[in-house]
Amino acid sequence: MKTKLKYICLSAAAGLTLSLSSCSDFMDLTPEDQYDEATVWSDADLAKTVVNDVYSYVCDIAQEVNPDAWTDDAFFTHVYGCRDINEATVSPSNLGAYDRDDCPFKWSKQYKGIYRANLVLANIDNVPEKTGVDLNILKGETYFLRAYIYTELLRGFGGVPIVDKVYSIEEASALNLPRANVADVMDFILKDIEQATSLLPEQQTGVNLGRATKGAAKALKARLLLHVASPLFADRTVNKLECNQYTGDRQALYQQALDAAKDVINDSNYSLIDCNAGTIKEIAEKFHNIIITNNEETIWSKQYVNKDLNADNWVRNRVALLHGPNGYHNWAGTAPTHDLVMAFETEEGKIPNTLLKPGESTTENPYMNREPRFYATIGYDGAEWGRPRASDGAVFDATPLGNLQFGYYELSEGGNNVNAIYSVDDDNNPIKQEKFNGMVGVDTRMGQIENWNGTYTGYLEKKLIDGSVAANEHNFQTCPMPYIRLAEMYLIAAEACIELNKLDEAVIYIDAIRGRIGRPDTKATLAVRGQTFNQSDLREFLRHERRVELTYEHSRYYDIRRWMIAPEIGNKKLTGVSIVGRLKPGKTASLPYVHDEEVYNYTWTVLNLNYIEKRKWDNKMYFAPIKLEETLRNPAIIQNPYYE
């Protein structure tokens, strides 16, 4: 038997052949050659390509399906199994979107990554030294990556089998490993993080930018500790499986999470960027740049390469194509819900309390006087996208930077008969509608360009997108995508302080996040919202702050579960918005359309999208199901509760 076929890993889906890239670019993982193991482990450059391969098993946020689509924050336009999650119909034999490769805790994919990491750790100490390759750093990166992958598995499933070595065929019986409990998985991850921290450099630069650092390892520690300390793992009413329960001192975990977060906050390699400057729009632009550039808030992010038309699509950052407007020939992917839009506070710090329920309407622009993060995150009707449209789109919108069109607009010249739908019932039967001569926005599902890719919700996300990329280059966005930002460490520190009843200290961390974008301080904002400075109200305040700060950053899905607020969140109706623009008396308009509140009377109505996805919560959804073939292959693996 050849050496390259000697080893197997926990998942039946894991591959056995080492396909390695001979290219020098860190993130260019296109398989070009295959080597047997003896060759790989006799050359440091080849060993490094195996470590590069391990990086590929970490799911970044620039994916078509973002896990926010499984929460109240977003809806996935093309469904792709997301409905199974949101309607709680998933099962071991029907995983829905949990079985997609862009699910950050897909069992088979993640254990394949663990297998690769174990392969590196089993062999790297015997690789000959070579100028230009630091084997100790590669070893540290591998410990970090294994820790990161296990953290994703823990957050998705709870306790999971710990595989810390490469098993040979002769040891196949040992592969019937049971699920370890959450505490043991956490301890295993913490040991890997400790090893990684001792080996990794403070920074990675040049061609190594995007590889793991000490700061990334410390930040992962804070994230992990906060997660396990959370209410879900202490619960015994819903969380009935022993391996998913934490029985240790949660207050001690919160203190450790606080200490770990502060360790990163006090690290001189990182600092919050002060976005305060001039107008709200300018502050929003600065905040947006924090997300799409490498900067002093970036703890760890994925870097992308941009070569030529023959390059692998998945090496490039395609999020502009995946999530952008159909009027730019994009796919609208994971689109914000109206519920998320109304979660962003007003300029004075209030949370909007109107225009929340299906059928509710207003003639006052709901997007005016909102906080900077709203404008950095949400693409809404009339908002600038960032570049002119191609010739087919310019017929309908000729503005220099492209104004998004999600509504029905009356025209005095040109146009067609339009049936404007204001509101519908649960089965999509119109409740209020009217007909007039006009046009339907080019970025809608009734528009003139690829309408099948239009958003249902009337919104698009712009947080992850560089809107200035030329329209014929939407496949080539190269801006980095963060895995971990410094802002998260401040929010972890604040949450831990609240749970430890260190309220004054918690406010220091929250105010740092809010102050750098010109938001009023926490205590003043609590008063504006009619709340008081106590643990309960501050906890609610912090949770809201996490929602709007970390939107689209793989946070909300886990947060609503670990906080055990999912029954409230998961039972919300899916909502979007309908926009109707009627000409004011004496005003005229023709193509191309221009958003103008001096010319149009606009009406915004909350749109019921229940007919697309009838969202409901089931307590089984606190943890994902383990795929049936995994439990059949390994009878020692106990299925998560309520899926038996």
TrEMBL record:
Domain SusD-like N-terminal as annotated: residue spans: 26-226
The RagB/SusD domain, residue ranges: 297-643
Keyword Membrane recorded: yes
Keyword tRNA processing among record annotations: no
PROSITE patterns reported in the protein's UniProt record: PROKAR_LIPOPROTEIN
Highest taxon of source: Bacteria
Location in the cell: Cell outer membrane
One Pfam family named in its UniProt record: SusD-like_3
Keyword field: Cell outer membrane, Membrane, Signal
SUPFAM superfamilies for the chain: TPR-like
Matches recorded under InterPro entries: SusD-like_N (IPR033985), SusD_RagB_dom (IPR012944), TPR-like_helical_dom_sf (IPR011990)
GO cellular component, one term: cell outer membrane
Signal peptide segment: 1-24
Family (UniProt): Belongs to the SusD family.
The protein, known as: RagB/SusD family nutrient uptake outer membrane protein
Species for this entry: Parabacteroides merdae
